[in-house]
From TrEMBL:
Keywords, sorted A to Z: Cell membrane, Kinase, Membrane, Phosphotransferase system, Sugar transport, Transferase, Transmembrane, Transmembrane helix, Transport
Name of the molecule in the record: PTS system trehalose-specific IIB component, Glc family /PTS system trehalose-specific IIC component, Glc family
Highest classification ranks of the organism: Bacteria, Bacillati, Bacillota, Clostridia, Eubacteriales
Compartment(s): Cell membrane
Residue ranges occupied by any PTS EIIB type-1 domain in the UniProt entry: 5-87
Active-site residues, Swiss-Prot/TrEMBL: C27
Membrane topology reported for the UniProt record: Multi-pass membrane protein
GO MF, one annotated term: protein-N(PI)-phosphohistidine-sugar phosphotransferase activity
Keyword Secreted listed: no
Taxonomic superkingdom: Bacteria
One GO term describing the cellular component: plasma membrane
Length: 480
């Protein structure tokens, strides 16, 4: 008998039995169920199990938080249930049967950007460090930068740009690869397509924006502009979707014995042509419009209102999965305006959720069982990952979740009203200050202090005054 056999048997019964399980898998801390009928799951009963730290439903999957020992729990559950597990990707596909069209669309977008996030975070850290080396005058009474005084650090700064350039300037390669990977088509064709959007023989996108003369491919009776799409998100996505569609279309009509030769040829060449003639220019206009609207809203007289709404609602966006769409907007802002005033608010929201958990740790000190999830969750928030805190603690009690939303809104107002800009996406928590442009660092630190102090204090006040207490489970059952 395994360590979790008894709890596994009870969970099988509470979840509606073997016949209610369409697919099951696990990640680092959670069991992931795709249920035939989610209403049959006894959420209160499941969360009462000793080995369970909490539960939530996201993207069509019922997820049960077990903790770092989830692999052993999974093995015991598989043994008592006789249900064979599947991969996380297979579980995600099965879960889409429980999602409507809009949810499936958002899930697909999330799965396109998710594999890119580690590179974007590394790139953000590198740009932040380079920012500190070359743009912050900390030597000789604030007159000189480190790079201007030390050749070693000048060399480090120059060397690191090769990585930053690979991540951000050649981002379309990652996007087209990820689209091909997501939809199960030939990944190397996605990579080749991305390279054709950023080829050195094309005029760099930054040169186009600067008004440089655009070279052309001359076909005699018509010409095509040789424009690169470095750091462009939407042109790359449109091109990637087109490649996927054409490859799948030709696979259906081309005989299998000719498929390896003809399908890549007829899929790739028309896509590259369309990318440079139609999709790229259209995507450029769309991306420019989106970034202009967001940037204009945040820098207008009503920027504080936009900031308060975004700061307040960003955490709920994480629950729905909509937050992944902000990656594309951030990248577009960086390309268009040399920085993003949206991303700092995301970092502040993450910090606020961590501070609310910190207050719960303070209020519930001595609760060793809860601390197994609350302490790692708070640390995770401060490093930019909020799901363990939100699903494991804050939504469970609801009042810390609301306190964090209020603190996030106030911090966002200060950030936007002060014109805070980040050079890039970075670690979405306390280390995020490294990505902030030097002249705005002080104001961002002040906004960070608001995101730390306000949720902590409000959570304690809400607890002592009984505000929203006892509402967490009701809300969870209603919306999740």
């Amino acid at each position: 008998m395994g360590k979790y056999t008894e709890d596994a048997k009870k969970m099988l019964e509470l979840i509606g039995g073997k016949e209610n399980i369409s697919a099951v898998s696990h990640c680092v801390t959670r069991m992931r169920f795709v249920l035939v009928d989610p209403s049959k799951a006894d959420i209160k009963g499941i969360e009462a199990l000793k080995s369970v730290k909490g539960s939530f439903t996201q993207a069509g999957q019922f997820q049960v938080i077990v903790g770092n020992d989830v692999a052993n729990f999974y093995n015991d559950f598989a043994a008592v249930s006789g249900v064979e597990g599947v991969s996380k990707d297979a579980a995600k596909q099965a879960a889409k049967g429980n999602m409507n069209l809009a949810q499936r669309l958002l899930a697909n977008l999330a799965e396109i950007f998710a594999p890119l996030i580690p590179a974007l975070v590394v790139g953000g850290l590198i740009l932040g460090f380079r920012n500190f080396l070359e743009a912050v005058p900390i030597l000789n009474n604030g007159q000189d930068t480190i790079v201007s005084q030390y050749q070693f650090w000048a060399g480090v700064n120059h060397f690191l740009w090769i990585i930053g350039e690979a991540i951000f300037h050649f981002l379309p390669v990652g996007i087209t690869w990820s689209v091909a990977r997501k939809f199960g088509t030939t990944q190397i064709l996605g990579i080749v397509l991305g390279i054709t959007l950023v080829s050195p023989q094309l005029l760099n996108a930054y040169g186009v924006a600067g008004g440089a003369e655009i070279p052309q491919w001359d076909f005699g009776f018509f010409q095509i502009d040789m424009i690169g799409y470095q750091a462009q998100v939407i042109p790359a996505m449109l091109a990637g979707f087109t490649l996927v569609y054409l490859e799948k279309f030709f696979k259906k009509i081309v005989p299998e014995y000719l498929s390896m030769i003809l399908v890549p040829f007829f899929a790739l060449i028309p896509t590259v042509l369309l990318a440079h003639v139609v999709l790229g220019p259209i995507g450029w206009v769309i991306g420019d419009a989106i970034s202009s609207v967001v940037y204009g809203g945040l820098t207008s007289a009503f920027g504080w209102l936009f900031a308060s709404v975004f700061g307040f609602l960003y955490a709920p966006l994480v629950i729905t999965g909509l937050h992944h769409m902000t990656n594309a907007i951030d990248l577009q802002l960086m390309n268009e305006f040399g920085g993003t005033n949206l991303w700092p608010m995301i970092a502040l929201s993450n910090i606020a959720q961590g501070s609310a958990v910190l207050a719960i740790i303070f209020l519930h000190k001595g609760n060793k069982e809860e601390q197994q999830i609350s302490i790692p969750a708070a640390i995770s928030c401060y490093m930019g990952v909020t799901e363990p805190a939100m699903f494991g603690i804050n939504i469970k009690y609801i009042y810390p979740f609301v306190a964090a939303m209020i603190g996030s809104a106030l911090a966002a107002i200060v950030s936007v009203s002060s014109g805070v800009m980040a050079n890039s996406i970075g670690v979405g928590g306390i280390p995020g200050f490294l990505s902030i442009q030097p002249k705005y660092m002080l104001m961002f630190v002040i906004a960070m202090l608001i995101a730390i102090v306000v949720p902590f204090v409000l959570t304690i006040i809400f607890d002592k005054k009984g505000i929203l207490k006892g509402k967490g489970m009701d809300l969870k059952l209603k919306y999740f």
